[in-house]
Amino acid sequence: METRLLPTDPASAMRSSLAEAVATLERGDVVVLPTETVYGLAGDITSPKAIARIFEAKERPSVDPLIVHIPRKEALYDVAVVDDAMDKLLRKLMETFWPGPLTFILPKHPSVSDAITAGLPTVAVRMTSDPIFKRVLHDLGRPLAAPSANRFGRISPTSASAALEELNGRIPLVIDGGACATGLESSILKIELTEGKPLFHILRHGPVTAEDLKPFGKIAKKRKPSPHTKEKEDAAPAWEAPGQTDSHYAPITPLRLLSDPSEFQPEEGKRYALLSYRGLEDDGYMELTEFVETFVLSPGSGKVPEAAVRLFFLMRQADQLGVDEIIAEPVPEHSIGSAIMDRLRRASIPATDQ
Ligand code: TXA
Ligand code: MG
Fold it and tell me: For residue 125, with 0-12 CB atoms within 10 Å meaning exposed, 13-18 middle and 19 or more buried, which class applies?
């Protein structure tokens, strides 16, 4: 299958590209669309054919559920069942964070197919702020299921060319909306209503941080796997996001995350690339060996939001260099830095450990 890449600039191109995207979705086919976080592979939630195509193109296991993207806040009630107590809190959260990179896990509406939720009684819902995605949702008039537009377990694409690299030949259409503004996948939140403050389980760290959510509820501590359990799965919280396997977002080249420069001893004859936070020699990583290339997340200044935008883009470049190992510096674990470190930790776990 030929995969076409359609522009959204100038405005006349935008009109015809979006019309084509909507027509493709109406036929029950799939389209790659930009969001503010990462590019998504979208399909009409009412089309079983489209949902099957999403799983097929991504080689995604059918046990890993999809996020449903809605065109406006009120559409939440078409895909999720929300009782009064939850509604009061949700309205405050939607007011503050939507449209934006926050996904809610809620009891699913009976009309949402089990294929989308992988048989779970819950559905993941979000409302993106991306103007192109929003226009497609509006013109189609139905919600879209859209996971990140990468093959399963690979790095999420933050540009149309990266999405094409992942899915070329497997899907009909990619809409080019430029670079993603945030660069990391949405935060995933499961809410537990209790006698006191609502308890927030952050199933995936992302652009909406624990600090951002704190004014609205209590952040649940993540249960650590007990050293006494043999199998990691035994200790995983029952409602961990099912797609959040330990190894995820991984380049093909092995990646090692350091916490201190002293942890690294280069091996004779091995070629390394460095994923540096600020690219400053004072940080002690740049001169550990003769790196084939150093990729800098936030040159000079060290701004975590900038590092987030560039992370997947640079990981992809480092992966294409053909080195033996990518060495990654840590970034400060505040605000979106926690989500960056989460992705780096997952990327540094070899796939065989999954
Ligand atoms: O920013 C994003 O969220 C992007 C853009 C395209 O919207 N989408 C995205 O989708 O990252 P995906 O499928 O790559 O990641 C969604 C995660 C998966 O780990 C999945 O297991 C989890 O959400 N998930 C979906 N439905 C769930 C549910 N009912 N309960 C728990 N986790 C769920
Ligand atoms: Mg993904």
Answer: buried
What pLDDT does residue 228 have?
44
Measure 238 CA to ligand 2 centroid, in angstroms: 20
Rama region for 297: left / alpha / beta (φ>0; ψ in -120 to 50; rest): alpha
What pLDDT, on the 0 to 100 scale, is given for residue 240? 59
- The encoded tokens of residue 170 equal 């497997």
- Please give the order of strands across the beta sheet that includes 272-276: 255-257, 325-328, 272-276, 293-296
pLDDT, tens digit (0-9, with 9 covering 90-100), for 222-242? 765 444 444 443 334 444 566
340: which 2 tokens?
Answer: 């960056």
Position 219 in a domain: no
For the chain, residues with pLDDT lower than 50 are 225-239, 353-354
Q: Average pLDDT of the chain? A: 93
Instruction: Return the ligand 1 atom nearest residue 67 CA.
Output: 25
* Ligand 1, CB cutoff 6 Å, lining residues: 35, 37-38, 40, 64-67, 101, 103, 105, 117, 120, 122-124, 146-148, 185-186, 188, 203, 241-244
* 317: in domain: yes
Asked if 34 and 170 sit in the same domain, the reply is: yes
Asked if residue 233 is part of any domain, the answer here is: no
What domain range includes position 338?
255-353
pLDDT digits (tens, 9 = 90+) for 108-148: 999 999 999 999 999 999 999 999 999 999 999 999 999 99
Interval between CA 188 and ligand 1 midpoint (Å): 7
170 and 259 share one domain: no
Question: How far is the centre of ligand 1, averaged over its atoms, from the C-alpha of 125 (Å)?
Answer: 9
